[in-house]
Amino acid sequence: MKKIQTYRKETFIYFLIAFILCTNSHAQTTAYDTTKVTQNPPEEKATNLAKQLANPISSLISVPMQFNARWKGGIDNKGFSTATNFQPVIPFSISKDWNLIMRVIVPVISTSKYTPDTKFGLGDIVHSFFLSPKKAAHGIVWGAGPVILWPSATDRSLGQGKLGVGPTAVGLTQQGKLTAGLLANHVWSVVGPGTRENTSATFLQPFFVYGQSTAVILSSESTYNWKRSQWTVPIYLAGRKMLKIGSTHFSADLGGGYYVERPDYAPKWALRTTMTLLLPKKK
User: Using alpha carbons only, what angle is made at residue 23 by residues 96 and 215, rounded to the nearest 5 degrees?
Assistant: First the structure.
């Protein structure tokens, strides 16, 4: 058990060091274009930021903080859980034609009434990289690369317990006020204790965003567990509003979800709020 805990701590420390180095490197080579900010009309800038935010692999640095509450799960439908996700998106310009986009999801999870004891701690970190052309071809924006599932959970019930890797890809189109696309990945477990179940899971996230400064979002974050032949399919509906405090731009999302397909004891309902800090970078 001590070896497993040490492995998880080392994995998490490695991730933090890599993330800090990547962020610092990007900050040293990228400055914010304050001249363009003052020259563009506020309405035009807000519209451009809203369009970039709807694109998960745009050249926009964004720092979302997402809070999820889920209920009606567990035994007798009394289970309740929360997940606060820190999920920064950082693009890197690696050539005149290509970007590399790094997306990270760091979850802090709490659960109640799923087990005799309330659980709270860090969940497994998901780290994705997308190689994406800077210019869309035929109106299609796409990106592809690897995804890594770090076994960083601080409690057995909060994570998979094994290192996972696999491919990830995203494709989307933007026509006027509408953005429609699909983000997908598949993760296989590759390293971890033999006492934990192997992982083979497909994740599908179709999304539709209609609007600009104010928008409506319809999405799902569906997972298929190949080991158990089980779907988990939540449908989310949310509203979005672009905000500005001083010279800093934010977006605020509020919405809810219902699980149309779920494993036994999984939640039925969800509430989600997201605040996203937007940091447009110099081109």
Answer: 75
pTM, rounded to two decimals: 0.83
Superfamily of 2-280 according to CATH? monomeric porin ompg (2.40.160.40)
Read off the tokens for 141.
Answer: 């924006």
Domain boundaries, the chain: 2-280
Residue 171 CA to residue 149 CA, distance in Å, equals 21
Sequence-separated (6 or more) residues with CB below 8 Å from residue 57: 91, 99, 101, 130, 132, 141, 143, 170
Write out pLDDT tens, residues 156-184.
999 999 999 999 999 999 999 999 999 99
Cβ distance 168 to 130 under 8 Å? yes
Q: What's the length of the chain? A: 283
| Listed residue (254, 277, 258, 253) closest to 269, CA to CA | 258
